[in-house]
Amino acid sequence: MFDKILIANRGEIALRVIRAAREMGVKTVAVHSTADSDAMHVRMADEAICIGPAPGAQSYLNIAAVISACEITGAQAVHPGYGFLSENATFVQALEDHGITFIGPTAEHIRIMGDKITAKETMIKLGVPCVPGSDGGVPTLEEARRVSEEMGFPVIVKATAGGGGRGMKLARTAKDLDNAFGSARSEAKAAFGNDEVYIEKYLGTPRHIEVQVFGDGKGNAVHLGERDCSLQRRHQKVFEEAPGPAITPEMRAEIGATCAKAVADICYIGAGTIEFLWENGEFYFIEMNTRLQVEHPVTEAVFGVDLVREQIRVAAGLPMEFTQESLGEPQGHAIEVRLNAEKLPSFSPSPGRISQYHAPGGLGVRMDSALYDGYRIPPYYDSLIGKLIVHGRDRAEALARLDRALMEIIIDGVDTTIPLHRELVRNRDVIAGDYTIHWLEKWLEANL
Ligand code: MV4
Predict the structure, then answer these.
(1) How far is the CA of 133 from the centre of ligand 1 (A)?
(2) How far does residue 172's CA lie from ligand 1's centre (Å)?
(3) Res 315 pLDDT > 90
(4) Is the pLDDT of residue 221 over 80?
């Protein structure tokens, strides 16, 4: 096992990793920007080192600075958290060149899944069901017309370098295709320096269902069921739950086995998420994320595991502490809501000083946050300031617990998305689990 690891991140996820490491007897190094000198992750780690000025590009994204921090402190491995350098193959390669272990997948797997065309080709080969679409990239408008006519409209044009909703254009009918194809390509060129696009059949009313997978890098892998993350706004998840309210044990066993086999076949190491659109009882692969996700705690709750501990173990060459059989079925129901420092109804960032903070608690409540009384939320980073996760014996109990915890929580001094969550948890459709990827944006339009 490692003696000391460095966490190349900030906020709640840095604390999350420090907590797992401490329980394993592994020492921790925090890195921080000049804007984060008073941040909780700096206080909680065994050591801390400043790696640059406030903007992320000059600190948390600075590969040379992170590697220098490892060399100065003697950290043997780096946990990247999510965002920042977590899916940066160049970073993983640079760590390897310096003899430092990346707590996550290989640079090659990050590269394959980062390019959405090669990701899809790989999944097709591995037997994972995908959205019907073009056979790889579509280089010309003529080709785009041919593929789309054959498939039938509506279609969606996606940037291979995109993902997470960036660089996508919908063509409802043939007359939209010129525009969709042209603007997808030019936006992809501007955003990613790569204008390659592919085309898929557009699914109108799917759910977003993602399967948690975990591999040991030696050909063994498991799945930990699914999460339903359909409640999103502008591709930002707002409310996530496990298990998916529409997914039966039979569906879970089948898609789970397919996903576990796929990642075993490529000798994937660590945590991964295979994202699907789910419509009329069928799963359609869209993307794979090669990182620990923000919403991983709902999976931890229903399977009773510590995914960060497992990430650190397999990175150190140890076996996973679970098997598919020992994991069994998800127990009960878990829900996470993301607490953002944002002003409603615009969702504009609301940085500032926390004048009062009171975390909710009690049975089945987990609050992952780096907040404290008097903390100043800097304006430079993501507006996520906490995650409230509840676990109940069933979905109704989880909802009641979420409602109760949302009434207990106090975050004063900045605007937050808590009032939105208090409404959602009492909404008829949310209570019924009756929603698709479009539900939240429609509801916000009508209610905010
Ligand atoms: C789609 C789609 C419909 N049909 N692909 C958006 C983010 C990226 N991960 C994939 N996305 C979508 N791909 C096909 N073939 C609809 C979306 C989509 C979406 C997906 C998941 C969650 C929220 C969404 C909101 C709008 C569009």
Answers:
(1) 14
(2) 14
(3) yes
(4) yes
